[in-house]
Amino acid sequence: MIREENMSAYRGLLPVLSFTLLLFLASCQEQSSPPDTASYLLAVNAQDELWWVSLSTKPDIKVGPVHSDSQRVTGVFDLAWDGSSSTAWAVGDAGYTLYRLEVASGRATRVGSTGAFINALAVDPSSGRLFGLGGSRVYEVNPETGSAASIQGIQLSCGSSGDVAWVEGAYLLVTLDCGDPSGDVLAKVDFSTKQVLRVGTIGFSGVYGLSYKNRVLYGATAGGQLIRIDEQTGLGTLVRNLPFGVYGSQSLP
User: Fold this and answer.
1) Where are the alpha helices (DSSP H) in the chain?
2) Position 1 confidence tier, pLDDT thresholds 50, 70, 90
């Protein structure tokens, strides 16, 4: 018969063993990549789980929880992915830590503290430069250390709603929360002039996911709506409802 004190020790190990088992089961079913990356977006939901979101009639694919070793990474506010490599960037711990993320498994490796609140992340695939937004500031994030440096001369007119997308050329498209009852606002950050130009109201709130894919701007909301956004007017059109709320997405051509 096992003594009671030993049973108590075993009970204490159950949560760790259970999570490890879940990660193992998820790894047995993981997708190295969707069959056709042109028809999927990479996204993280409100439960800090990594998903491939379908842009076609194919089903969405759940990768699994964002995790580091045997622990879940929480407070994942956004992703940045170039659309082709095996790893992406993620900002976790409620916007204060940069992680390197394996898109096939959701496994995250800590890079370092950002030193600033960041809830939006984007990467320039040609140069590898990493950009972040938080509050009214635009940052360049060091991919080696995670440290975020404010870009002087650029300030957002409203607070960052939760995502940013790099567009071919030299500018960012961002979602702003300006307190407009008709929804978030789409704005353009032009690095050549250091101007922030308002494009228009999206018509949807909580647009925390933004992806520029195949020359089309897609948004995803915390309420679980996948939308298509007119880059010239900012107006969003519902594509379909998702089975989860999105806290971050990014996929590039």
Assistant:
1) 4-28
2) very low
